[in-house]
Amino acid sequence: MYETVFTALFRLRRLKSLGRLGKHSSKTNKFKFQSSDRLTAIRSLLEKLIILFILSIDILNKKNYKMLFSLFPLTAINNSITIMDIDIRELIDDEDDENQEEMTAQKVLQNVEQAWLNEKFSPEILPHQTDYVECLLEQIKGMEGNLAKLSKTDPKVDLHKLELERIKFVITSYLRTRLKKIESFCVRVLEEEATRSEEDKYLSPAELQFAKEFALNADNHFDTILRHMPQLYNKLDRNKKIIEPNLNSFVFLKCNKHIDSVIIKNTLEGQEEEIVLEDNSQHLMPYSSVAEFVKNAFFIQIIIYYLCYILISTPSKYFNIKNVIYV
Amino acid sequence: MYCDKVVELLKELERSREDTIPPYNNDGINQVLSEMKTLDAEIIDFLRKQKDNLPLDAIRLRRAAIERNKRCLMTYIWTRLQRLKEMRWEIGAILPSDVRQNLSQSEIEWFNNYCKTLVSYMKTIGSDTGLNLTQDTKPPKSLYTEVRSLVDAGKLELESGEVLILRKNSQYMLSRSQAEPLIRQGILEQVRQ
User: Fold this and answer.
1) Is B79 an interface residue toward A (CB < 8 Å)?
2) Are B29 and B111 in a shared domain?
3) Model confidence at B139, in pLDDT bands (50, 70, 90)?
4) Boundaries of each GINS subunit domain copy (chain B) (predicted)?
5) Partner residue opposite B133 with nearest CB, options A175, A222, A321
6) B150 and B118 housed in the same domain
7) A179 touches chain B (CB under 8 A)
8) Which range marks the domain in which residue B162 is found?
9) What is the third-level CATH fold of A103-245?
10) According to the 3-state scheme, what is the secondary structure of B21-41?
11) I need a labelling partner for A71 at 20 to 30 A (CA). Which of A112, A180, A267, B13 fits?
12) Does B18 share its domain with B83?
């Protein structure tokens, strides 16, 4: 039961996020019920009202699933406590099926893993997936609680613990990679972020805060030296300190969904080529061609970041110590 | 020749190992700054004295020298910051005193601010206490790892509540999450199979 509530809520969130991308708008109040017996009808109506109430938490409160976690503690998973004997899936299935995805804990983990790989191998920073990460962290907390209750001699405990460690590694590595990118491309990321609307920010609020403080801190430090330079020269202009990700670097990728047209620009000859990406096919192409599909809802999985792995602590040309000494 | 000193500074930095920070060369930096000032003064002098036929080439040369000095100084600072940043992830918020001695006042300030920013970011992850991103840096292959104690570190309380006494040169099986910070602090050493 718990699992289903969780699933349903995640679907709703999923739908909302799709709606944001302009592909689908979510409606929750579309459901019909057929029932011969009047009493059953009233009963099921009442039940659905309860569920609607729960779902409305979602609309009122963005951190909905956290509330639900406190409502249905994680221990309920195995003990099959039934709170309401109606499947929430029924309610949601009344909506059209195409845009729905199962959002079990397993799926959340998969999404985080995919986001992690893409983040790791793409040259620029991708939209954040804080919802999934936080959800997974909640799950981990619950599982740790459950494990603590089991006896220490149980061989299952160690297996589960190792699995937890692995998940934790994925999460921390994902967030670390993002931080490294923010640090490297600080100026650029902040500039781009300022042009984006509130809903499709790439950074989470906390990351944005981090980026701003980091930039300010670095500027202050540079200023302690720049201050002593002669006038005219005591400023460092943006173009010199900016570090740009190399968007034309090549990536190996696997296509998760059929994409009708991908345009590959040939910068040398100034030509364009249009190709079709088949489901499950693998390609090697410039990142810039597929960037939008990587960003939008897991269309593409990047397998390897192929050329010039210069991502982490890349100096700008201006700061590159080797460039400076050996001219 | 112009710019010699600043290149000397950079070479000194480049020769040192990547995971160390050489002493902050305050004298060197001051010399470079004063060279920049002299060059600037020379340019202004040219402009004042000869209004009709300016020695354009001489001015251009001096300007280029100033720009180069500036660029090199910035590179010097920037490279040091990168190394310092690595240390925050490797060693943690508390720097050993030998590293601390090598830093300038402003660098220590930067480091403290960086720690603050990082910690306040890490606190916001998840719902309550946050998540320490400096942990779990390597993909775990097994839950436990064999370590050797390098010093008499004394009592260590395990996650299970048991207390372990770490003696020099003795080997233990510890859970990875617990051993990792101690390995980084140099108290334990990983035993390679």
Assistant:
1) yes
2) yes
3) confident
4) 62-125
5) A175
6) no
7) yes
8) 144-190
9) Methane Monooxygenase Hydroxylase; Chain G, domain 1 (1.20.58)
10) CCCCCHHHHHHHHHHHHHHHH
11) A112
12) yes
Residue B133 lies in a domain: no
ipTM value greater than 0.95: no
Instruction: Count the neighbouring beta carbons within 10 Å of the beta carbon of residue B140.
Output: 20
Instruction: Please identify among residues 94-123 of chain B the ones whose CB lies closer than 8 Å to any CB of chain A.
Output: 106-107, 109-110, 113-114, 116-118, 120-121
- Give B1's contacts in chain A (Cβ within 8 Å): none
- CATH number, domain of B93, equals 1.20.58.1030
The closest alpha carbon to B70, from B20, B21, B104, B32, belongs to: B32
Bridge partners of residue A324, in order along the sequence: none
**HSE-up of residue B110 (Cα within 13 Å, Cβ side):** 27
What is the domain count for chain B?
2
B8, B102: one domain: yes
- The predicted-structure confidence for A208-217, as pLDDT tens digits, reads as follows 999 999 999 9
Contact at 8 Å (CB) between A250 and A289?
A: no
On whether both B155 and B119 belong to a single domain, the answer is no
Selecting from 3.40.5.60, 3.40.1700.10, 3.10.450.50, 1.10.1660.10, what CATH number does the domain A246-326 have? 3.40.5.60
pTM: 0.71
pLDDT tens, residue by residue, A8-56? 444 444 444 433 333 333 333 333 333 345 555 566 666 666 665 555 5
Task: Tell me: do B109 and B160 sit in the same domain.
Answer: no
pLDDT value, residue B34: 93
Please report, for residues A191, A217, A243, B17, B113, the alpha-carbon distance to residue B73 in angstroms, rounded to integers and kept in the order given.
26, 18, 18, 19, 22
B146 at A interface, C-beta within 8 A: no
Contact status of A230 with chain B (Cβ, < 8 Å): yes
Position A8, amino acid: A
